[in-house]
Structure formats: C-alpha cells, structure tokens
Design brief:
Blueprint (H helix, E strand, L loop, with lengths): L1 H17 L14 E8 L8 E9 L8 E2 L7 E4 L4 E5 L6 E8 L4 E4 L2 E2 L4 E8 L3 E7 L7 H31 L1
Parallel strand pairs: 1-9, 7-10
Antiparallel strand pairs: 1-5, 2-3, 2-6, 4-5, 6-7, 6-8, 9-10
Length: about 170
Amino acid sequence: MYSKIRFAGFALLLITVLVPFRSASADMGPKPWMEFTFEQETAGEPLTILGGEFYECDLPDCSDARPLEEVVVQGFRCYDDGRCKAVAYGFSQYHYIELEFSDGVTRRSNVFETSTFQGKYQVTIREADLLVKARFTLDPFSGRTYLILCGGCLLALLIITVFIVIVVRRTKYG
C-alpha cells in the first residue's frame, strides 16, 4: 500500500516536471475608442459611407500622418447604420479621417485632438470636406468625471455637516 502511494506521488512529480507549463496572456482591459456619428449638410440624397481611413499624427498640422494600423481589435471601421468607430491600444494626440461617400467624393476632415478615453465625435458632411467636433461626454476613465464626483461628494458632506451643526445647536441651546 505504501509503495502505491509513493509511486503515485513520484508519477505526479514526474508529470509536473515533464509537462511544459506556459503562461497565457490575453488582450484584456478597456481600449480607447472614438465613435463618429454623421450629419449631412450637403443638398441632395443622403450619402452613405463606402470606406475610409483614420490617420494619426504627432504634429498639430498632421504633416507626419500615418494610417491607424489594423491589428487584432485595433482599427477603423464604418458600419451600415452610418457611424464609424476607431479602436486602438493607444491613440496619438492628433487625427483626421478621410472617407469615400456614395456620391463618389472622398472628403477629408479637419485635424482634431483626442478628447477622452472613449470619445464621441459629431462629423458634419459638407460639400468638399468633413468637420469633426468632439461631443461632451462623461467618460468614466477621465479626470473630469472624477473631479465632478469628488466635488459632488464634498458638497454633500458639507451640506450634511451644516445640517448636523444646526440641529445640534438648536437642541443644545434651544
């Protein structure tokens, strides 16, 4: 009996030494993204997006523009519902988009900056170009959101403290 237990222990030890253990890694965590919704300023029939490219730049004039690479989840995609989305492992500070529309015209946007971790942008389709403007959103990962939450909590704490002081004074001296 003792030899069977000893043999099983030795076999288990041998298996753990011989079987290679590999560490697994996954692409986890939130990724920054930009969502673009469109409104048409041009006359005529509603335009549809046929395709497009998202460019990133380090310089404010975008003279060093390069397309966003398509890597796993990272990339720029436009959908049938008329919106586009860019997802990246990390964005540069400046960007512009170039889109081809159903009227055969390829329009380029103004240079815009990254607004938030999960930014939403309104794109106006004009006759010759695109105008991109950031929409205000409370991004759960931005400093602005944390400041608003902390400010609200401090204000609530101040109001509760004043209320308690008034009630204590009235009961003590009242």
